[in-house]
Design a protein that fits this description.
The protein has helices spanning 15-26, 58-67, 82-87, 89-109, 143-159, 193-202, 229-244, 262-273, 297-302, 312-325, and strands at 6-10, 30-35, 50-52, 70-75, 114-120, 165-171, 173-175, 208-211, 223-224, 226-228, 249-254, 260-261, 279-282, 291-292. With 334 residues, the chain is an alpha/beta fold. A seven-stranded parallel beta sheet has the order 3-2-1-4-5-6-11, with helices on both faces. It has a three-stranded mixed beta sheet with strand order 12-9-14. Strand 5, helix 5 and strand 6 (165-171) form a beta-alpha-beta unit.
């Protein structure tokens, strides 16, 4: 148990962040959340202090770091929409880069040295390999991916001269929900495929839009590596333990090594729900690679990370269960 170990979870009211708070609580840590609630939801947090504010607010950060003796900071507060980053790049650089720099500055002033950053497969751009490992070239193709690269570069530079120890975890496609149904995925507006598909299954939306069906894949739709959100959170715990034990810096991919196309996700959800899930074909989105699948063997070897929920069926079933626990009734179409 880690009863006396306080962890600041920035962006802790969001999708991955709220699951991380729950994971920390179950492991005996004392999480404290900082979230501006622009994307997150306070109702996802139970028995935890949620401070509403910005990581760019130096005065607020100083108050938090003075009040609590944090053992670590976990950062889930980046803006994450590729298309939005192309339309509003300055907004992404201000939040994802400048505000993160402020957070790191205040953190180090208060002698907190353990930092875990939510990075992204977007740092790789469009690599021409079947499985992407950490040696692949960093070549982002949109402002979102570039903002993640900038933070990773900052972490390396700062760690060279400051007592900063960090882990940068490059997620592929976070999916699923707490298997016990306490939390679900909830974005406003929703942009992730599995919850969108389940909304169509419930009749909350008339159809799914598939953005392009002429990619160089078996069925023409984009292929992504979906990794269960609870497996992502487990990797964070292992990374935190490694930092506390003295590891200086870590960069790991988090994925399953298996890709599923958009069409495969829809077909799997149809089978699980029994619903029709209509779709239409739209234009490809700027900045969308055809295939992104992880080689996460380094995290498995060095962190002893074991993926518990590898099957796409589990991710969809857990997301559906969480919706039902929230009182949402699935309207099944035959």
């Amino acid at each position: 148990m880690h009863t006396n170990q306080a962890v600041l979870v920035v962006g802790g009211a969001g999708y991955v962040g709220s699951h991380m708070v729950l994971t920390l609580q179950r492991a005996g840590y004392f999480p404290v959340v900082l979230d501006n609630l622009s994307k997150g939801h306070r109702h996802t947090l139970k028995n935890v202090e949620c401070v509403v504010g910005e990581m760019s607010d130096t005065e607020l950060l100083n108050q938090l770091f003075t009040k609590y003796q944090f053992n670590a900071v976990m950062h889930f507060a980046s803006f994450i929409e590729v298309s939005e980053s192309i339309q509003f790049p300055l907004r992404y650089y201000q939040n994802n880069v400048a505000a993160t720099m402020n957070l790191l500055d205040v953190m180090l002033q208060h002698q907190v040295k353990h930092f875990i950053f939510s990075s992204s497969a977007a740092v790789y751009g469009q690599p021409n390999v079947a499985l992407i490992d950490e040696t692949c070239a960093i070549a982002p193709i949109n402002p979102y991916g570039r903002s993640k690269c900038m933070v990773e570069a900052m972490l390396h530079d700062i760690a060279a001269v400051e007592p900063l120890q960090f882990a940068s975890l490059r997620y592929f496609n976070a999916a699923g929900a707490d298997p016990e149904g306490q939390l679900s995925e909830c974005h406003e507006p929703e942009s992730h495929l599995i919850p969108l598909v389940l909304q169509a299954a419930r009749g909350e939306r008339s159809h799914i839009t598939i953005f392009g069906d002429d990619y160089l894949t078996e069925d023409g739709t984009c292929i992504r590596d979906y990794v269960h959100v609870m497996d992502i959170c487990h990797a964070h715990l292992l990374a935190l333990d490694a930092l506390v034990k003295g590891r200086k810096k870590m960069i790991y991919n988090l994925g399953t090594g298996r890709g599923h196309s958009v069409m495969q996700v829809i077909k799997t959800a149809r089978r699980i729900t029994g619903a029709a899930i209509p779709f239409v074909i739209g234009s490809p989105r700027v900045g969308d690679p055809a295939i992104l699948v992880a080689d996460a063997s380094l995290a498995m070897a060095e962190l002893n990370w074991v993926i518990k929920y590898k099957a796409l069926d589990d991710m969809i079933a857990h997301a559906l269960k969480a919706m039902k626990v929230r009182g949402v009734t699935l309207e099944v179409e035959n």
